[in-house]
Amino acid sequence: MEVAAAKMIGAGLACIALVGAGIGIGNVFGSYLSGALRNPGAAASQTTNLLLGFALCEATGLFGLVIALIILFT
Amino acid sequence: MAMNPMEQFAIKPIVPLHIGGYDVSFTNQSLLMVLVALAASLFLTLAMSKRSLVPSRTQSMAEMSYEFVANMMQSSTGEDGLRFFPFVFTIFVFVLFSNFFGMIPGSFTVTSQIAVTFSLASLVILTVIVTGFVKHGFGFLKLFVPKAPWYLLILLVPIEVISFLTRPISLSVRLFANMLAGHTMLAVFGGFVVLLGGAGGVLSLLSIAPMALIVAIMLLELLVAFLQAYVFAILTCIYLNEALHLHDSH
Predict the structure, then answer these.
(1) ipTM higher than 0.90?
(2) Fewer CB atoms inside 10 Å of the end CB: C or N, chain B?
């Protein structure tokens, strides 16, 4: 197989990382909502942790993007 | 019409300058960094120049950003972490202003360059290491030894060391990749608008749809721009907290 074609396929495969990021972000917000509905009083104090969890989850998907870029542009 | 969505990240020299074989040109990157630093310091000095008891709108913006970071540090590093307030506040304001300056159409995003974010992240990690060794001496190495039975430590110590070493990478790549992905997405959708609008007939009318989508994505990107500055600052606080207090909470 030509190297250029293999690079394209590899970059596409790197996007599978988004599966994990999607599951993670859904889990973060879902768990926060179910917790917040059970105990609305404690919800406001946990927004920091919510945003932190969101950012950490999102980053894993973006690492996939970085790998795709490295494959494509090196 | 072929457009490259990565073109916006190209660094172009404005004043070419070569010293001793090194390329130290004044580029669009350096121009934006100077602008960011100037805008941030001008905003904070001008907003606080009146110092009235009942703050004006600009003054309360400056005070809010101060209190925001101060509260964040208070809750994550405790009282003695406030010594590092100027450091964390500078990083927060710099990243926030760079992200927001990048949102201006046609400008350049400083934080979409891995060189910038990695320098910031290594600055943070170096501060953490120096603080840890100054405060605890070689006891700082206890950071890598959690409370666990010895047979688990064989496994845990390497994991702790590796997780500590990957921190500068994850800290910098998170900010860089978020900015890069967001701006690439905006450019790709912008390309849709141009292609559809230039197609003529009914297709030109259809170009309103991606245009509306861009507006929505722009809002999301504004949120991400703030959120990433916040995350960068709070992770700095968390790392500093570990260096200051090792495993016991403050």
Answers:
(1) no
(2) N
Residue contact A59–B170, C-beta within 8 A = yes
Contact across the interface for B227 and A54, Cβ inside 8 Å: yes
pLDDT digits (tens, 9 = 90+) for A39-50: 999 888 888 888
Domain region containing A62:
3-73
CB proximity list for B18: less than 8 A, separation 6 or greater: B24, B25
Q: Do B174 and A55 touch (CB under 8 A)?
A: yes
Which one of B75, B181, B228 has the shortest CB-CB distance to A65?
B181
Contacts B75 to A, Cβ<8 Å? 48
Q: Encoding tokens for residue B4?
A: 């490259």
B213, part of any domain: yes
| Residue B16 belongs to some domain of the structure | no
